[in-house]
């Protein structure tokens, strides 16, 4: 009887340690900024795999002296979706055309890049690559996904389109435009883009 008690206590402690380790792992991912990127990547892959779309994460490109860093790229028959990810729970202020935005938390106030302008730059670099290879009329758009706590975050970016919470992003992928077939050669575009990866 006493032996069963030891086994039960040992089992409970093991489960408690596993749960604690899981929460610590999630917390460290969140603090490093990787949790939001993992969530967005998983949503894109879940959406893309059944449609034979390609998902590329954390991509660095270089072409003609211009560099681009892309958090996520979804290449599908509709065209290409560029996704920037913001992980922190904070208040964000700025406007669509400003050089940078301001991020305010309980402890800090700091400048950050304007991710809308970054997406436009990335689209422009990819468009140049396509143009050099005689590929035209590919639909491309960029969005920024805020993955922090919805209840504690405020997105105060004026004049901006394509800014959304993670929950809205998942719903956004359900729009009909992503099911439209614009006769895009998905493997061909993927292969071409990867030639410029650094």
From TrEMBL:
<keyword id="KW-1133">Transmembrane helix</keyword>
<dbReference type="InterPro" id="IPR011528">
    <property type="entry name" value="NERD"/>
</dbReference>
<protein>
    <submittedName>
        <fullName>Nuclease-like protein</fullName>
    </submittedName>
</protein>
<feature type="transmembrane region" description="Helical">
    <location>
        <begin position="6"/>
        <end position="25"/>
    </location>
</feature>
<keyword id="KW-0812">Transmembrane</keyword>
<feature type="domain" description="NERD">
    <location>
        <begin position="32"/>
        <end position="149"/>
    </location>
</feature>
<dbReference type="Pfam" id="PF08378">
    <property type="entry name" value="NERD"/>
</dbReference>
<keyword id="KW-0472">Membrane</keyword>
